[in-house]
Design brief:
Helix content is 67%, strand content 3%. It is mainly α.
Length: 273
């Protein structure tokens, strides 16, 4: 069940996107998120979606892997859609259906669709970053981008290491959860029937062994780092040096063009409702 979740899992394949510098991908994701939030109409989101799906094509990642990353946010998507569909209010809204405090308007449907599309693009973009970049590369990229903060004694290396370990632990803990749930099912546990309260109660026996396993793995990781005389970022060298290539500069140009296009569409085409 949890093996279908692809967020945080690296997909090894030879592609243009995989070869990009991790700093380029991090900066492009930041620019892409800014473009999404700057979009005030479907034209801007369509431009963002076109760039994103082009990147997926260049990354040679199967679409099913991308779709799986949405499973973790389906509840948030449905909840957002329901709240906006039934409780969206605006002056002069065209009422399609109304009952007591619930009201469905044409503008509410449009606004809900806009928010859902924005949320989908955000999640897919973040998933594409982790699918095309190893945790080690992400760590090196974050540390390199935050290097100026070392001048104010900010623990840049430690922060990057924490992010790398967190990303690496996502698939590990998912597999561990799946194994625990299978063991509980073999003992008669039922996670798929009954109401929400019953399902929540059935999950409690999974949480405790999962936490114990997470603490045990963290303790083993700490012992392994101590055994290898790990001392943090002081006087550490890199096996691979990060260097920008022609493709990286092309991505910077693309990010700038995307933001400029979204801003122009926001100015001249207005909001969806």
């Amino acid at each position: 069940m949890l093996k279908d979740v692809s967020f945080g899992q690296y997909y090894p394949v030879e592609s243009f996107v995989h070869r990009l510098d991790p700093r380029t991908k991090l900066l492009f994701v930041i620019a892409y998120i800014a473009a999404i939030f700057l979009s005030k109409n479907f034209y801007g989101l369509a431009a963002c979606a076109a760039v994103l799906f082009a990147a997926i094509g260049f990354a040679k990642i199967p679409l099913r892997k991308i779709v799986r990353s949405m499973k973790g946010v389906l509840f948030l998507v449905v909840f957002t859609a329901v709240i906006n569909i039934f409780f969206y209010r605006s002056e002069g809204a065209r009422i399609l259906w109304e009952w007591k405090i619930f009201r469905i308007t044409a503008e509410g449907l449009i606004f809900s669709g806009f928010l859902i599309a924005r949320l989908f693009l955000l999640v897919i973009c973040a998933s594409l970053l982790t699918l095309t970049t190893t945790p080690v590369s992400l760590t090196d990229g974050v540390e390199s981008l935050l290097t100026p903060l070392k001048w104010v004694r900010f623990p840049v290396h430690e922060l990057a290491l924490i992010m790398s370990i967190a990303l690496r632990f996502i698939p590990i803990l998912m597999d561990e959860t799946d194994r625990i749930m299978n063991a509980q099912k073999a003992r008669g546990a039922d996670f798929e029937t009954g109401g929400p309260i019953r399902r929540i109660r059935a999950i409690i026996p999974v949480i405790i062994p999962l936490l114990l396993s997470a603490f045990r793995r963290a303790d083993e990781l700490g012992d392994a780092m101590d055994a290898r005389c790990y001392t943090g970022g002081k006087n550490r060298t890199k096996y691979k040096k990060l260097r920008f290539a022609a493709g990286d500069f092309a991505m910077f140009v693309l990010a700038a063009a995307l933001i400029a296009g979204v801003v122009l569409m926001r100015i001249y085409l207005g909001a969806p409702v």
